[in-house]
Amino acid sequence: MKILHIISQTPDFTGSGKFIRELIRQSTRNGHENYLVAGVQADFNLPETLIRADHCCFVRFDGKDLDYSIPGMSDVMPYQSSVFSNLDITDMIEYQRVFEEKIRQAVCRFQPDILHTHHLWVVSALARRIAPDIPMVTTCHGTCLRQHYLCPHIGRSIIKDLQNIDWIIALSCDQQQSIVKTIAADPSKINVISGGYNPDCFFCESKEFDGVVELVYAGKLSSSKGVPWLLKSLEKIKDLPFRLHLAGSSSGREKQICLELAGNLGAKAVYHGSLTHERLGALMRRSHIFVLPSFFEGLPLVLMEAMACGCRIITTALPGVRQLFGTDHGTMVKMIPLPTLKTIDTPFKKDEAMLETRLAQTLKSGIEQVMQAVEPNMTYVCSATSHFTWEKIFSNIQQGYARLCREALK
């Protein structure tokens, strides 16, 4: 089967970029031919170990195909980016024109049997409009629904094309309901299939405790991910023996704020920048607690990666998180309830002090558990992660591909 993958932003090691890389790897292992259309920075190159250069059509930003930086599906990306809500009419017309041209070229050159796009947003709508007769599946990563909220004028212009997508993959049950509410999609076209983790990179080893509790956060350095909240909370418990590892990146003022707050912790905070899967897995295997203080997520698969490495988890009680871990997780998972938020990913100012205290108390409890040599529940680790390997996730997606192709032949 020839599969054309389409994504509007750089396929990096975070979020939907991580998802599409693993999707291509699994698809190749299962004998499919893979092709790619992606929006990328001017100098970006994807490793040929993942996909051949002549199987790719890139839309290059930063002065190449388009003059401005890539508009991210999140307003803060791990690289220089634009914001959809700030693009003017001319920018959006050019954006759609260039992507339409590249998608047409790819469909003509590669003759795909199926399209697999990412995000229920502009590029997926263009793909549906350009190739209405090719079976098409779109994975919703959650951030696209946020764009419908932030840019309703764009959302209204593409909703009919999005409704004509053959199959939509939601990463959680809560997200499935949000898709129906946001674009009025036919519920029968939506299936919940989570993303997965790579067990070659994320696996357990025995953890040493030498008197310092190793904490790790991996993701964008941004306020919507709760990183400033985490750093301020740790300042309240600086007397405890911990070291925080920050893995990930960002750009602009958000990154600067996070690094300044990390500086207040001195040697107790270590900034690693962006890490490959292999290096992130190695960091997680020597860490005791993984922290995800995010105010908004689709399905945060980094939690499964951390759990597979034997990390205890401290995270906000978002719907996708509750789906991952359920309720019977003993001492391995601590979920922090959030108050009503001001926007989809921003708390009210009046709640910030309470949130800092709440997270600080939870972190203190988790650190003390490690100090007291409370053993991780490895039986729970195995049961929680066993269904989320990429091999199993892709098997479900591949069945959907086959069904769509059969239906197209009728």
From TrEMBL:
CDD domains per the UniProt record, alphabetical: GT4_PimA-like
Superkingdom of source: Bacteria
Protein name as annotated: Glycosyl transferase, group 1
Domain Glycosyltransferase subfamily 4-like N-terminal: 15-200
Any Pfam family matching the protein: Glyco_transf_4
Organism taxonomic ancestry: Bacteria, Pseudomonadati, Thermodesulfobacteriota, Desulfobacteria, Desulfobacterales
Species of the source: Desulfobacula toluolica (strain DSM 7467 / Tol2)
UniProt entry keywords in alphabetical sequence: Transferase
InterPro entries for the chain: Glyco_trans_1, Glyco_trans_4-like_N
Membrane-traversing stretches: none
GO terms for MF: glycosyltransferase activity
Residues annotated as domain Glycosyl transferase family: 213-329
